[in-house]
Structure prediction request, 861 residues.
Amino acid sequence: MEAIKPKSLEEVLEYKYKYKNDAKIIAGGTDLIIKIRKGEENPKVILDISTIQELKGIRETLEYIDIGSATTFTKISECILLNKNLKGLKDAAKSVGSPQIRNRGTVGGNICNASPAADTVPPLLALDSILVLERKGRKREVYLKDFFKDKGRVDLGEDEILTRIKFKNLLKNQGLGFYKLGLRRALAISRLSFAVFLEIDEMNRIEIIRIASGAIGRFPMREYELEEYLTGRIINEDTLKEAESLLERIIFERLKGRQTAKFKSIAAKGVFKKALLNALYLCKGVNEFEKN
Amino acid sequence: MNELKIVGKSIKKIDAKDKVDGTAVYPQDIYLENMAFGVTIRSTRPHAYIKVDTKEAEKIDGVIKVFTYKDVPGKNHHGVVLKDHEVFASKKVRRIGDPIAFIVAETKEIAEYAKNFVKVEYEEIPAVFDPEEAMKEESPKVHDRDNVFYHFKIRRGDVERAFLECDVIVENVYKVPMVDHAFLQPEAGVAYLDEDGRVVVIASTQYPHFDQEEIAESLGVNKDMVRVLTPAVGGAFGGREDITVQIHLAIAALTLKRPVKTIYSREESFLAHSKRHAMKMYYKTGALKDGTLLALEAKIIGDSGAYASWAMNVLRKAAVHATGPYYIPNVKVDSFAVYTNNPFTGAMRGFGATQVPIAYEQQIDILAEKLGLTPIEIRLKNCFREGSETSTGQILEGFIPLERCIEELKSF
Amino acid sequence: MNLKKIDVNINGKDYCLEVEENLRLIDLLRDKLHLTGTKEGCGEGECGACTVIMDGEIVNSCLVLAFQADKCRIITIEGIEDEIIKNSFIEEGAVQCGFCTPGMVLAAKSLLDKNLNPNEEEIREAISGNLCRCTGYNKIVSAIKKAASIKRGGDSE
Ligand SMILES: Cc1cc2nc3c(=O)[nH]c(=O)nc-3n(C[C@H](O)[C@H](O)[C@H](O)COP(=O)(O)OP(=O)(O)OC[C@H]3O[C@@H](n4cnc5c(N)ncnc54)[C@H](O)[C@@H]3O)c2cc1C
Ligand code: FES
Ligand code: FES
Prediction:
């Protein structure tokens, strides 16, 4: 294995062009190093991007919030640019591993590793994020929702890397909620997670809703059927109940035959509800449905 | 009374300073001149006859020697009570994780690499994983004997008659799983020869004196030719009572006449040491209307896995504690230790006294519920006091503050 | 395996080293420099025994490759001279087998460098990446509280 620490993004792309699939990007290394040591990955070349400044940090442009792929979870959870309506993204970043893991692990690694349980992916999906993929001399953009091809497989060319993740900043009547079910508080990989982007009017009518689940399918994914059901409805106990049983059916169908099907389809209801209520709270500033 | 100097005072731990400074020495922290590194080959099958071929591995540059059962100078066995472990499996493996060979090489990397070249041929034979299955006549035998290797009985009063007098009887089956100690410092050790030709083994162990005996026996030397040093121990909780690295290192150092070190990974640590006994507990408890406990009948089956370790002591203790801290005049308990092809079980914090509370306390709660008593009332009625007699006939004397302890709980 | 040259500052001292390209930072510290206060409890990011401070932040040195530390500043337990934290650990009985202790002290140091008035929740969060199998968490938490209080200029509470 050859280890290279390029000095700039340009150099990274140059090496990636030269070595193609023989070269693996290493950012925080919190996934890759374990895989290399277990013999699951055996790259000829690794390119370290953990100190490339151009790929780190969060900035706001006219239209978007724009996060560098090598930005750590710690930086995301502490970022003041992410306003309070984006709490779901910060919550997700904060829920990853432990302080040590969050200080190294990056959002780009989280996305590219393509684990079904990647915690920042559901909120980024719910934000309808766009990924910027770069190769030497060319840049393209894809929606995050189209990026995952299979468990551990993504739409990334042999000489391409992920450089930025962007999404629209939230308005006052919009909110992003997240909820994760893990075995314990720290160092627990998600058993189940939900992120909900919500826009409502004064009547609590859902104008836009985007729902993403984690650790349910082969990769984190949007729950279109549920979104469709909820759009245009007024949020109240009845709507929630209906949505929950619809979700239970969807998840049970998806996991049919798997041991976890029953547990996850039931647990999903509660996790989804919490994520939705978190989002609602951010839109309204009050929580109208959480009893006590 | 004169003021006591130590009792009742917080005393600073003697080695705490070294530990906060990071200078306390655990075995993995020892680096010696000309030190070789060893890694263990372990069985990947629960029950199989084996053939081992080390030739290819020994050809690798930097591999010094691959040790197997043939290289054990003395007895190829060890064990805290029964000598039923082999230092290296000779003919058959009895669980996943049985040590088969020890590769010693110039560096850790070479030794790890050489692992791929030690050929172990497995001829699998039927295995048994459920202790109750293992108790049956026709089940596969883990050792050349009956799988049930220990049966402890407690008989007191007349259980059968007492149950006829009971107003309520509760009958349930409780199961508790194996538990790993997961002490934070994985096993590691260093062995070398001192100027007098003695084998020195440095390892985190709970029993340097037992280890000395077992090492000497496997080396075929007198005890005074073996020194065991215990540096800082990174947690143990019972998990360092059985031999792990000690004999392998001693044999390698004696044979090669140079220092040899080994460090287990966390994964290997799980494979190498004992677990807390999984137990299945059949409980039948009876009481009078007013909550007075009258009779207990219990059958406790302990899964010893492939080796006995401390199973007899653990299952005896489980039986002795079967009533919990409650007076019951009629008691019949049978506890069994049974071999299976599971990981072997041994000592862990409580030594059998930790499993049974799951059963006896729940029995009492269920009885209370049926009798319309509170959990506190039923316990106060039956709990041990000064002068109480236990199921084994021990009269409790001295300070038995359980009643006060339960009273305190009333306020919660 | 090729060797790679790196410049790294460890505990205030500059090193110019040649390291194997797949070497982990923990191996560099322990096997090459014999800074054995950094412990390996799991090798996969779960236990925090291998915690070091890298450019001001705690990281698991089992999950950093040595070459990634090129041009970085590393502080290990051997480089911690904070007697207030260390003494608080000793006095509060926060040290048992000691294998988690260096990592705990570094996590505590990293917290108190940023926040001299942490509440219990923040302390528990700060050590949430460090396992203590002797399970002395309460004493560790009170040691950190005590250290914070001394650092703020108060007595121990
Ligand atoms: C103890 C522990 C606990 C954890 N807990 C959690 C948790 O709670 N939630 C969670 O979601 N994850 C968790 N993880 C997983 C891991 O920390 C995250 O997935 C993290 O985001 C990975 O980021 P990284 O920078 O470390 O990735 P790396 O390991 O550096 O890379 C991961 C993969 O992505 C590729 N890659 C990285 N960056 C790019 C890029 N810019 N362009 C193209 N490819 C790239 C790499 O080639 C590699 O294949 C945990 C891991 C550990 C060890
Ligand atoms: S050894 Fe690094 S986290 Fe456990
Ligand atoms: S003191 Fe032993 S692991 Fe913490």
Observations:
- Chain B has twelve helices and 17 strands.
- Residues A 24-32, 34, 49, 69, 96-97, 101, 104-106, 108-110, 112-113, 117-119, 161-162, 187, 189; C 44-46 surround flavin-adenine dinucleotide (ligand 1) (CB under 6 Å).
